[in-house]
């Protein structure tokens, strides 16, 4: 790469033609097709110049290929002026070092950039480190967050050379690191120098060396007038720390907390759809001589939802992926010209760019089906008989995804396979026929998902539209799953049913932290009448337990939080007995009982349920009553249109009585305020009246046992309200 960059500097003609298509980061603003200088670099530079802080560690974050190194290069260009000293590290070349080695390298780099007044001080620092390390003393380094501790062992082995080492020690009189920094700080301040240390691509290092550089960043905070700037892919770094177990935890949240503690400021590199499409257009001008792709792109940019615009602006997430697609199109430009469905062709190449492993999958599995004399038997042998026979009408989805339109007969099927192969073998050797854009997106899902997802799809459990939901679900992304259920699939009761079943079997590994807003929306979902239970509620009941109880009360609607709190109270044997709850019935549950009900990890103000006292129950009820009172008093339609609102109204009275509160008259006034609000539609007011009317009918129905009159129980026979209701 260095030779490549050097070539650019020497031959500017070559640079102007090829630099934007190379994988190397840009070096100057003239190559900046994404306007990173204006949108990103200037913002970071202005922050650095205006901030009063002189001891900072700044993260320039973003996924691989997003343009972090390019932004850092442009930032270095702006910083290299006046009294600024810019020191760059290359972890890929210098990364396999211990902390003491990195510090020594830092001193050597600083030595190159300073004058005669400071160089003697740096020499003494380097000598001190050399003497200390020659004694084979390894310092103990540790970084702590509330959840993690990372450190190395102390080694002390003076050994045979003790006399020699003592002589060297007496002669050189090595200084401690704090003494070194104090002396250097004084000298640098006198010369009015500001230091900028640039470290890029540390996320590509193994976890142990990654941590060494992060700890080095923390050490640099001992220097005055020094700002450390680190290019890092947060997600890649977190995954390395988790998978290589250097945080002694498998928890994403803990690993992120560790990184957040090290960086005072984080700038996220992002590019919107418009910028990425303009970037693609600038690159395409270099290779699309007949303007085949550019014409498609310009036409699509005038449409709100476009296929080609989606490929470059949404589907491909980084400039590097866009460059790779343009290079791939360069290689297959002749095929593109002859291809009927050009968008499908570009789309398929985009899939292979985003998921390179798809080529191996297609070579291994798709070609096996396309070239086999008995493809149906091949599928049975490879994937199992269920793939063909279970809900047989759905097998056409699998076959269509492989470019085979119809395989009703063996002989025709085999010929069909060979014809497809012969026709498309010249394009990557593996491109099946009849791809539309939906099929391309499906193919990505089909090959990138887990076997359990493939089995569900091919066995006929789910349709193509439902596939994305299952992809998120089996990838343990509960928020995306719920969002898709709510947004894209308003009547997906069967799919939700399957998710609910899987939750009951595998909830410990499936559920991650959900968003309360999604749970509120699910709570509003209706289910078809012949279900004996509501699968949406099953999902809620598992998902909600990953949230602290105070968050459930604060963020979910009162009827949902009431239902959940009642479930929690039952665990403590505090139940509805003849219309009242007695906190004195409190009975601590066993650990096994909490596990059976999936409540063993539930927290309230960082306290687990197994450590609860009666006072914690009082706190929960008090918190819920405050929230309920606030919501009911707001007279908002959304509050009074909640499912099972009547249950929440009863608990407002009953739980209030458990805390010696008399809430009946308050509740009556809340309802009156709502019904007299001229801004509320009459049809919505009528809903509340209908709810209370049905509840009154239960009281009058002798077959439903002893149910008290709601006018008495809820409103203490408030005459004014009775007149409004009747």
Provide key terms for this protein.
single chain, 726 residues, alpha/beta, Rossmann fold, 5 domains, five-stranded parallel β-sheet, 40 helices, disordered N terminus
Overall radius of gyration: 33 Å
Give the count of helical stretches. Answer: 40
The tally of structural domains comes to 5
User: What is the CATH topology assignment of the largest domain?
Assistant: Rossmann fold
Topology:
Elements: H1 2-10, H2 12-18, H3 36-50, E1 55-61, H4 68-79, E2 84-89, H5 91-94, H6 99-113, H7 119-134, E3 137-138, E4 142-144, E5 149-151, E6 155-156, H8 162-172, H9 177-190, E7 194-199, H10 207-220, E8 226-232, H11 234-243, H12 252-262, E9 265-268, H13 273-287, H14 292-300, H15 307-315, H16 319-331, H17 333-338, H18 342-354, H19 357-371, H20 375-383, H21 386-389, H22 395-401, H23 410-424, H24 437-448, H25 451-458, H26 464-474, H27 478-487, H28 493-510, H29 516-523, H30 535-543, H31 549-555, H32 558-571, H33 591-596, E10 603-604, E11 607-608, H34 614-633, H35 637-640, H36 645-658, H37 664-675, H38 682-700, H39 710-713, H40 719-725
Parallel strand pairs: 1-8, 1-9, 2-7, 7-8
Antiparallel strand pairs: 3-6, 4-5, 10-11
Helix pairs in contact: 1-2, 3-4, 6-7, 7-8, 7-9, 11-12, 13-15, 13-16, 15-18, 16-18, 18-24, 19-20, 19-23, 26-27, 27-29, 28-30, 31-34, 32-34, 32-36, 34-36
